[in-house]
Amino acid sequence: MFASILLLVSWLASPAIAGKAGSFADGGNTSVSAMMMFVGNKDKVYIIDKAEGNAAQINDHPAWGAVWDFNTHQTQLMDIKTNVFCASGMHLPNGSYVTFGGNGAIAPGGNIGSVPNGQGAASYDATYQDYDGSKSIRVLNPCTDSDDFTSSDCQWFDNPDVLSMQKKRWYSAAEPLGDGSVALIGGFVNGGYINRNTPNTDPELEGGAAEPTYEFYPANGRNATVMQFMIKTSGLNAYAHTYLMSSGKMLVQANISTMLWDPESNTENALPDMPGSVARVYPASGAVAMLPLTPANNYTPTVIFCGGSDMPDHLWGNYSFPNTDTWLYPASKDCQRLTPEPLDGSAPVYVQDDDMIEGRTMGQFIILPDGKLLVVNGGLNGTAGYATNTGTTLSYSQMPFGMSLASGPVGTPALYDPNAPAGSRWSNAGFQTSNIARLYHSSAILLPDASVLIAGSNPNVDVNLTTYFPTNYQAEIFYPDYFSGTTRPVPSGIPSNLSYGGNPFDITVPATSYSGSSNDAADNTTVVVIRPGWTTHGMNMGQRFLQLNNTYTVNSDGSLTLHTAQMPPNPNIFQPGPAMLFVVVNGIPSNGTFVIVGSGSIETQPTGAASVLPDSVRLSGASGSANGSSGNDTDTTTNGGVSHTAMIVGSVVAAIIVLGVIGGLIGVCVSRRRRAAAQKNTSSYAMRNAPGGSGALSAVYGADSSKALRSSDSSAFSLQPDYNHSQQWSGSTANLTGDGRLSPYHDAPPYLEDSRGPHGMSMELDPYATQSRMSTSSPHGRRY
């Protein structure tokens, strides 16, 4: 008996914190709801909300900007002048970040601000003190812990009178080109649920509510120009999915249409429609990502589309609201792959991939350093967006989930392996389930230690802490499978800049970074460059993964020298700007090291010949010296990485568990003869359907069982610690009573051209280009 106890104690006391992999941890309070996020550097994640009534105050008004610290999980408020509601965003080549557009000034309850602009919106609101953000270009140069965050150098530059777009854009797409400039595509002018009126008699302008043009940042004299594809896809073309291809053309997908677009000539080449008429763009909001670019696939871009909605066109409604109770309509689980530029010259076609484990709307792909894709967040039914009524539920008091147009939160992440055999690419085994509903305005992003930060959710017009799916401020950190080990690689020799082609460089991985055969470890080592992107609305704009080519030399001391190529000599494959470099040994990533890819400037990028690598050199008998499995070391800190206090807490908890188990087992021995019989186990967590049940569903969809309302496998939302009782999803917190201030979306009236001219404010100025901080302390003015 005691031998068994000792064996159990030995397992529990193992350095590997087995409970960490696949688990969630408390990420702290974000102060503002995380509608948007991006990783600024090794220390900071920047968070942006829409202008709304957050309790957190800055300069005597509600805050809608914050910066989250990777080391402490604490936030510091940031002042943003204009309303960033549903803007787009992107990195710049020097490591700065920029957001584009947003909405007019908003007052409490989502009402138009106190100073109307005569165009159906407002230029300012005296209560929230937000300005019109519909043309804004906001620039931030991320700062680190060593910087003074009270300095203007560390704050958002947000002044539309100095820097703005030519057109008003809300829900626009943003995609960088090979020179580092950014293409901005489409959007609403002052929109609503979807980008059209009904009947749709003016698909180009929608009476002034739609913006069918594209423009560039910086403009460099180029005027905003109509994109016919935006007219073709009228209605479902908000946040179009955009990916630059190797040729310099751009994949653009919206509604159920797809094309290759040439930004230089504005020519469009139609590609096949989305199979099954599944919409992936907002508000269907499927999970979409470019698959890893590797030497094995010759860096050929392939994009995967999963989830979203196949809701018929007439049910989508218009600017005001959908024509059906969307929360009863199951999200799609369909996945399709598309290679827009096949190497063999064949015609591009969509290829059916494995279905997701469950349907998801608002699911989000996060590309992990091991080349797998994690999908998080979202709901089983419905769409993104919010409303006070639909075409069938006419009163807010009858809306079963408050303003939310989705139901059935999916709290269990799922993992997609693009290289697994067809039929076995999805799994969620061993993953915990979060009890926090992550629906509309949720976000997620890869952190420098290769964990995933998840935050946000606010399907409400303004802050609402008592409705069915309330405004959420609780962040979580999810730890993928590779956190199950005990040792992480600690590479050295990683440069701060990567060029397009040119001389290779050497990375050293010490023997202490892995265990087992050195030859095997070298064969299973990759060097990958990841751009986590700028995340909002289930998208990570700019997210890419590229594996650098490498060979190796195994040294007699067990260390590995990785002879590593520079980036492929084509900036279109991985556009210039900030990224994280990971060394992955036996599937376990190092902490990420921040690098700048390219010259750091918006310009035609210098390219060289592809790097030439020496042959690999193996050495029999060499081995790593790490103890245990090659996984996460609870005390490892390296370039761009930190150790989390959660690791220490986990160790303490494990020790407590050891003592508790010993006591418990002894108690079992003493009392086992007193037990008459074992109690029968029963489930504590019942599945829940949406209000209305199957009867309401049958009334809408008849006997078609394929459209049966899905009940979340995680609907209990009780398997995780309740980090914030007021924020957890619970049927008992439903508040189906309106407050009189809320109003549904309204059709936008025609809008007048800006009196300052057809091109708005200047887009030529980069307010950081001439600042003193663009100094020799960093070649691009970037702090890491």
Automatic annotation (TrEMBL):
Pfam families: Glyoxal_oxid_N, GO-like_E_set. The keyword Lipid metabolism does not apply. Residues 488-596 form the Galactose oxidase-like Early set domain. Residues 205-482 form the Glyoxal oxidase N-terminal domain. Gene3D superfamilies: Galactose oxidase/kelch, beta-propeller, Immunoglobulins. Coiled coil: none annotated. Residues 716-784 are annotated as: Disordered. The keyword Signal applies. It comes from the Eukaryota. The chain crosses the membrane at residues 646-670. Residues 721-736, 769-784 have a biased composition (Polar residues). Residues 1-18 form the signal peptide. Keywords: Membrane, Signal, Transmembrane, Transmembrane helix. This is Glyoxal oxidase. It comes from Lentinula detonsa.
